[in-house]
Amino acid sequence: MLHSIVLHMAEAFETHLQELRRGTVVLACLQLLRTPGYGYGLLEDLQRTGFDTEANTLYPLLRRLEKQGHLTSHWNTDESRPRKFYQTSRDGLQLAEAMRTEWTKLTDAIDSLPEDPLTDEKN
């Protein structure tokens, strides 16, 4: 019984954590791609900085952000293997700044919540 409760809690945590990370990866990509980069290099940068992202999540995200006008891209064929380089567009920079501002507001709001509402009510 205890094992199934722990397993259920772990599954719920993973689901909610995935939802929380989804928006942060968008912001991280927009921030990191202020300097042009290609998909696999970006994936490594994301993982190195603590954004555990899968390739099958990243590449559709890059295409969507480009389609929305938040990224620009160009092919680099200088090397033996052509690579598509992405860079945050002017609109993407504005979006990143707005998202960062909202993230700060949300962080401040969460930090202002009582850690133990029952204890705080008694005081």
Structure description:
This protein is mostly helical and 123 residues long. It has a domain at 29-109: Arc Repressor Mutant, subunit A (Orthogonal Bundle). The protein has helices at residues 2-32, 39-48, 55-67, 90-112, 117-122, and strands at residues 37-38, 71-76, 83-88. Strands 1-3-2 form a three-stranded antiparallel sheet. A hairpin with a 6-residue loop joins β2 and β3. α1 (2-32) runs antiparallel to α4 (90-112).
Secondary structure layout:
Blueprint: H1 2-32, E1 37-38, H2 39-48, H3 55-67, E2 71-76, E3 83-88, H4 90-112, H5 117-122
Antiparallel strand pairs: 1-3, 2-3
Helix pairs in contact: 1-4
Task: List its salient traits.
Arc Repressor Mutant, subunit A; WH-like_DNA-bd_sf; 3-stranded antiparallel sheet; Tscrpt_reg_PadR_N; PadR family transcriptional regulator; WH_DNA-bd_sf
Classify the fold: give the CATH topology of one domain. Answer: Arc Repressor Mutant, subunit A
Our count of helices gives 5
- The CATH architecture of one domain comes to Orthogonal Bundle
Computed CA radius of gyration, to the nearest angstrom = 19 Å
Class derived from helix and strand content: mainly alpha
Number of strands: 3
CATH homologous superfamily designation of one domain: Winged helix-like DNA-binding domain superfamily/Winged helix DNA-binding domain
Strand order of the largest sheet: 1-3-2
What is the percent of helical residues?
55-70%
**Binned strand content:** 5-15%
What's the mean pLDDT score? 90
Q: List the uncertain runs.
A: none
Organism: Yaniella flava
Protein name: PadR family transcriptional regulator
Pfam families: PadR
InterPro entries: Metal_resp_DNA-bind_regulator, Tscrpt_reg_PadR_N, WH-like_DNA-bd_sf, WH_DNA-bd_sf
